[in-house]
Structure formats: C-alpha cells, structure tokens
Amino acid sequence: MCGMARPRKPLLSRERIVTTALALVDAEGLAALSTRRLAAELGVSGPSLYNHFTTKDGILDAVADTVIAEVDVSALATGTDWRTGLLAWARSYRAALAAHPHIVPFLAQGPGRRPAGLKMADAAFGGMVAAGWPPAQATRICAMVRYFVAGSALGSFARGFVDDPSAYDPADYPRLGQAHLLAEHQQRVDEGAFETGLLALVDGLALRHPESGPAPHR
Amino acid sequence: MCGMARPRKPLLSRERIVTTALALVDAEGLAALSTRRLAAELGVSGPSLYNHFTTKDGILDAVADTVIAEVDVSALATGTDWRTGLLAWARSYRAALAAHPHIVPFLAQGPGRRPAGLKMADAAFGGMVAAGWPPAQATRICAMVRYFVAGSALGSFARGFVDDPSAYDPADYPRLGQAHLLAEHQQRVDEGAFETGLLALVDGLALRHPESGPAPHR
DNA sequence: ACCTGAACACCGTTCAAGT
DNA sequence: ACCTGAACACCGTTCAAGT
C-alpha cells in the first residue's frame, strides 16, 4: 500500500550493503552471511540485494576490497629504506586482516580485478623494485609477505589448541604438556610469532639483497 | 523390497566417507561438498551419513586430519640439525596442504583434538626445544611455520592476478605491467616464493638461536 | 529504477519406519 | 545396527508484478 515497492529514495546502496555485510561477517562469521539474513539486517527483502550486486560473491568481493583499502602502503614509497617500508606495510597488512579474520580465505584468492588489492600490489612491487630488488625477487617478496600475513590472520595458532589439559595426554603427546595454556595467551603468542617471524624474514632477505652487507641482529 | 533398508554388510564406513569427501573437495571445492552430494557419490541417501558422523563438520574434521597425517615429521627427530629438520618439515607440510588447497581454511583453525595435528605439533615443538630453543621461542617457530605454510597453500599468489593485460591499466597501476603474465608461471612463482621465504626465515632465525654463530648465506 | 512476494532447486539435520 | 523417505527450516537466485 504505502511504504511498499519502490520508495522515492532508494533504501539500499552498495556502500550500505558492504558495510552491513562486513559487520555481520565480523560478528558471526562467513556462514552467517546469507542474502536473506543480510537483507533482514538492512530492513529489506532478500531479492532486493540483486538490484545492487549481481551475485552474493560480488558482495564478498566488495567487502574484501574494503578490508584491503585499510592497508597503509605509504611507507613503500620510493626513498624509504626497503626494510622499513616492508616492515610497516606487513604490519599494517596484518592489522587489517586480523581485524576481519573471517574474510581472509576469500581475500587470499588474490586481487583479481579489485582496485584496492591492485593498488597495494602496485605499491609493494614498485617499492621493492625501486629499492634495487630484481623484478623476479620483488615478486617473490610480495608473495611471501602475503603468505605470512594471510596465514597469520587466517586463524589463531594459540587458539588452535583446546583449553583443556586432558586433551593432550602425555602418553600420546609427551611434549605438549603446556599446550592447553596457549589459548589464554592467544594474542601474545600470535603477535609474538608474527613479529619474530617478520623480523627473521627481513633479516634473511637482507642477506640476499644485491647490495647487501651483513644483516643487523636486533 | 530387496536392496533397501539395512543390508547385511554396511554400505558405508568412516574411512570410505572421508576418502570420497576429500576427493570431492579436491576436485570441486568446499562448496561442492554437501551431505546430499557426498551421499550420492557414495551411492546412499543423505541421512545415511549421520550413522557414521554426528555432523558435516565432523566429516571435515576427519578429512583435515587425513591431510595432516601426510606430513612427514621424521626429520624433526632429536639428533638432526634444527635447520635441516625445520626445512624438511616445512616442505612436507606445504606439499601436503598444497595438494588439498580447498580444506586449508578449515585446517588452519588448528589441531584442536585431531590426533595427526597434535602428533605434528608435538614433534615440531619437541624438535625445536631439543635443538636448544627456549620453549617460548619454539612455540613461535611452530606458529610462524604454520602461518607461512597455510598462507602459501591457501591460494596461489600468481593466480591471484587475472590473465588479461587490460585488467592492469598502466594509468592506475604503473608498475603492474607484467602482472598478467604471472598466471601462466603460477607454479614457478609460488614455489619460488615459498622456497626463498623459507630459506630467508631460517637464516633470520639462525641469527636468533641461543648458540648461534653467523647465518650461512646459501 | 528499485522494491516486493512467489517460486525453483538446493542446503543440514531430525526422525519415524523398515530390516 | 544401518539404511530409507518425509519433513523442517533454511539457502542463492530468477522473475513477474508493483510504483
């Protein structure tokens, strides 16, 4: 009768859909994102979404690009030392993904044609080449940073272990006696592993830089 | 009638279900694994699966443990040099996951109570501690290897870029001019990045070992 | 242009019924 | 014990109908 069918002002926009979808995925996981549930959250009926996106995957694509757009690539600009740039980029990259762990599997399928993903790849690859890395090596560096960041954001290492001592019978797993304690130190363990690994990776790479001296041990 | 209801010999077994599920996931992805589809592949009706697993997630759990069981941890045994052990473990770990990329997101949720996952964690942690690493550092090493391996198996870096030059407009992405070529060198790029990253990581770690001299530049 | 409800071919899971 | 079909509450997506 009155508020039905088409209102004078659109109820939806791509932006509102993406924002709500990201909030839903963050709060309840990828499985909770159904078109019907998302539509309900937006106060419309399910099929309405198809006026703004051709497919549910299209929505996820836009969500993924929003997340990548949060990554700060400014430190990769020409002129900065490559180690400093790489460290800052990787930390920002991880922070962005760790804030939205549930879309990481989707995100890790690569930039494809998503603008924020391509902008990041352009900045990272360009930054490494400008710092003197041969293109093939610059590509590998971008790839290994993606591996490390995506892997660390995909799921907590520490929370992978159950918070229950009886799960780790010393007869079966003699060296996992403390494993049940990992869960409660989740953040410390995961961030420590990422940070230690990142610094080790950069030191190891420094040994391979065309104009390298010895790596700094800090 | 004749072949209906319960046959004298069970039609299904946990093992047959897991094997078929893994084959289906490998061939068509996680989304193709529905209980109805899996049951059809096994020649039974959907609900039959619930006589052997309490839930679809339980099936995936068993599939994940099967994949981890393929990882060779023998090089982590006490007595081997920790670098050699770590490299061999990480390579075997990556090979196992890369053979079944579609279950990596599920796998990366950690070992939980899965026996093969726990056996691997026990061997890796124990191996690093036996090699002189303090327990906290050994934990971090296990975590960072998981990050790197899972991230690299989760999705190809190279195939993340579309095989279409027009996707990467030089005006928008000035340094991605060759990006469309990545797809065709997918395996070389991804394996090169993993191998380079792994060696860099180990060299970087060697600088931090309690009894370390300088890292070898291989 | 942008929303609606109805409809289609799917899901995971439960359950009573068969042997 | 182990399989079946029917049923329940869901899915993603299409489409004709409304304004």
What's the helix and strand layout?
The structure is a homodimer of 218-residue chains.
Chain A: H1 14-28, H2 35-42, H3 56-69, H4 82-98, H5 104-107, H6 115-130, H7 135-154, H8 186-206
Helix pairs in contact in A: 1-2, 1-3, 3-6, 4-7, 4-8, 6-7
Chain A binds a DNA duplex (19 and 19 nucleotides) through loops.
DNA-binding region (chains A, B): 34-53
GO molecular function (chains A, B): DNA-binding transcription factor activity; transcription cis-regulatory region binding
Protein name (chains A, B): TetR family transcriptional regulator
- What is the CATH architecture descriptor of the largest domain in chain A? Orthogonal Bundle
Number of domains of chain A: 2
Number of helices of chain A: 8
General form of chain A? flat
CATH structural fold name of the largest domain in chain A: Tetracycline Repressor, domain 2
Commentary on this structure:
Two copies of one chain form a homodimer. Chain A has 218 residues and is an all-alpha fold. The first copy, chain A, has two domains: 14-65, Arc Repressor Mutant, subunit A (Orthogonal Bundle); 71-208, Tetracycline Repressor, domain 2. Helices cover 53% and strands 0% of the residues of chain A. In chain A, helix 1 (14-28) crosses helix 3 (56-69), helix 3 packs parallel to helix 6 (115-130) and helix 6 packs across helix 7 (135-154). The interface between A and B is large, with 70 and 70 residues. Chain A binds a DNA duplex (19 and 19 nucleotides) through loops.
